[in-house]
Amino acid sequence: MIDIFKGYKGDAVEILKKFNIRVWGDAEIKTTRGDFSGIILPRSENDDDKHIVLKLVTGYNVGIDVGTITDMKEIGYKEAHYKIPEKEFPFTEGQPKVKLFGTGGTIASRLDYRTGAVIPAFSPGELYGAVPELADICNLETEKLFAVFSENMGPEQYKTLAIAIGKEIEKGIDGIIIGHGTDTLHHTAAALSFMIQDPPIPIILVGSQRSSDRPSSDAALNLMHAATAAAKSDIAEVMVCMFGPTSDEYGLLHQGTRVRKMHSSYRSTFRTIGDTPIATVTRDKITPIKLNYNRRRNDKKVKILPYFEDKVALLYYYPNMQSDMIYSLIDNGYKGIVIAGTGLGHVNKPLYPAIKKCQKLGIPIYMTVQTLWGYVHMFVYDTGRDLMNYGIIPTENMLPEVAFVKLSWALGQTEDMDKVRDLMMTPIADDITKREPYNGYLIYQGGIPEVEEFIKKVHK
Ligand code: ASP
Fold first, then answer.
1. Quick one: which of 109, 110, 111, 105 has its CA closest to 39?
2. pLDDT by residue (tens digit) across 143-166?
3. Which of 106, 117, 271, 308 has the fewest CB atoms below 10 angstroms from its CB?
4. Which residues are catalytic?
């Protein structure tokens, strides 16, 4: 059955039997795509039978296509059991009441070693069993709204979340936490910043880069920080709460419109762009860095504006981009385009005719910068001036994803392009700021001890 160029033809169970390898066995696997070693995990009910799931030493699980396997060997065996002990979440008189909405992502998942599936752990009982410290911070209620990885979040989920949060605010909750996958956390944070305006309480989005079955998981600490911020801070903004430095010294609270995932695997992946983070947070203390945030209020007033137009595109410009990219958006009925341009906000000349066509048809195009830090300046070079003549609107220092979300939100509520422009260019939650503090770029992002250590090594 083995053809060393093509691998194994049968299914996962057959191949394990053939090579005498047990589930929970520590295995070395040779494949046409390279060699792997790790623990063979039991298969989840939903997995197909053509893959073996292996837990690598790094803690990541990988699926190996049995069709690529050329040889396997068991070098050890240790059965594992894993179950979060469920305990009733205690209610403490006088503590702030916080609502946690689960949407999915790594923070909501742990590996179920009985089935090998990554499953959500979000009942209050499970959360208390896993992170009992939460009970010292607040009285927690939980509700699982979705159980998706964050690439599957979108307009419908944003709207459902905004409406559910509005209802909780009306009922008098003291703070909101949203558990969310980290990959698109900043999209949802931007969407909620526009859909939930003037909230009287903190609204905290939190995720984790590493699931709770890994020793280096950031799930528990991020949750504790988020709970502290939601229950005790006086910052009534939509914020993202994630690891600050690479050590677990403190978390950072980032404005929902100024934050971005900047590293694919570090726990300290979220960074405020174009500003400083709003505050640092530990399990018992919030230390503001910025002072011009909206303060917590006692009323239950909030504006919920759950709008979103699906036909909006974010175009990341690259040299030699062809105009058919823009023509195809026109042909497919797109109603608005955001471009992430080069430098101060540029694209090449071959795109000009397509851009002019958008202008003629009334399809708005907004310009942002790929550099992320800094402002669009379209008066400096001919290119910028030409593009503005063809109707492209510079968006100051709005981040590309934020401009994309904001344009979708604006076009979702009106077809009047002057109104859309007003909505776009009026800052709502620091999506546009007057200036970018230079020290935002340099510091306050949690990397200081590492930077100092590094500099000490090279600069003796
Ligand atoms: N892929 C996951 C998600 O975004 C990653 C995470 O949660 O960190 O849903």
1. 111
2. 989 888 899 999 999 999 999 999
3. 117
4. 106, 182-183, 261
CA distance 109 to 120: 4
| CA 180 – ligand 1 centroid, Å | 7
Q: Does ligand 1 lie within 6 Å of residue 218's CB atom?
A: no
Residue 109 Cβ contacting ligand 1 at under 6 Å:
no
Q: How far is the CA of 63 from the centre of ligand 1 (A)?
A: 17
Quote the tokens at residue 38: 């790790």
Query: Which residues lie across from 255 on neighbouring strands?
Result: 239
Mind listing the domains of the chain with CATH numbers? 10-77 (2.30.30.520), 97-304 (3.40.50.1170), 312-425 (3.40.50.40)
**Which tens digits make up the pLDDT trace of 274-327?**
998 999 999 889 999 889 999 999 999 999 999 999 999 999 999 999 999 999
Ligand 1 binding pocket mutation candidate from 61, 107, 149 (most atoms within 8 A of CB) = 149
Phi, psi of 45 (to 5 degrees): -60, -30
Atom of ligand 1 nearest to the CA of 106: 7
Give the Cα separation of 25 and 420 in Å (integer). Answer: 59
pLDDT value at 60 more than 60: yes
Cα–ligand 1 centroid distance for 100 (angstroms) = 18
Ligand 1 in reach of 199 Cβ (< 6 A) = no
**For 187-197, what is each residue's pLDDT tens digit?**
999 999 999 99
Closest CA to 190 of 209, 205, 175, 177: 205
